[in-house]
Amino acid sequence: MDEEEERTEFLRDRFRLSAIAITEAEGRKQGMEISEPVVACIADLAFKFSKQLAKDLELFAHHAGRKSVTMEDVILSAHRNEHLGCLLRALSRELKGKEPQNVRKKRKTSKTEDAPTS
Amino acid sequence: MEDLSFDPELMHSVFKLVWSKKSEKNGDTGIINDDEVAAGTSKKSRQTTANPNALKVSCELVRIFVTEAIERAAVIAEAEGSTKIEPTHLERVLPQLLLDF
Description:
The complex is a heterodimer. Chain A has 5 helices and 2 strands. Chain A has helices at about 1-30, 35-65, 70-75, 80-100, 110-115, and strands at about 35, 70. In chain A, helix 2 packs across helix 3 (about 70-75). In chain B, helix 1 (about 10-25) crosses helix 3 and helix 3 (about 50-80) crosses helix 4 (about 85-100). Chain B has one domain (about 10-100): Histone, subunit A. The model of chain B is unreliable at about 30-45 (pLDDT under 50). Chain B has 4 helices and 2 strands. By secondary structure, chain B is mainly α. Chains A and B meet through helix 1, strand 1, helix 2, strand 2 and helix 3 of A and helix 1, strand 1, helix 3, strand 2 and helix 4 of B.
């Protein structure tokens, strides 16, 4: 149990570090200074958000009768926000394009993809 | 433009951590616990996995979450004529941000 807690802490710290890097890069892009507590808070939020996301994705995949999470599950998790859905869908299409071997497998998704983007 | 993002490998570790914790606590979809311990190879009790593209999209989702938080807080800070994002600015945008994700 102790070892697992240690692993959790380690992962959380690693995750926070990348979140902090992204936060600071974004601040520079905006030409804004960001105070310390805000950076820490956003890093924590990002970690909690990811944990929630993991639970959602697992539920979605299991509901579909799968053991493996797919891109569709991730897009589904953002279904409440249309813009977000569009962004992720564009990215998933790009990624799918890079891997031609699974294009056919995802045939049914093209139908659902057309509707919201119009 | 800097294109910093999360490492899909890191995201995978976080996911795996959550998934392993969950399946430990309760045999998630009603599968009995000792089944998992005794016969870990059985297909029914195998842990959830994620495909690499799904991880990349998840990384992007979390990255958008982070940048969106900063962008929205920056708008509020700017409206107040400040060049530094303070906790109060984040507090103002947080409710809507959490509703949007």
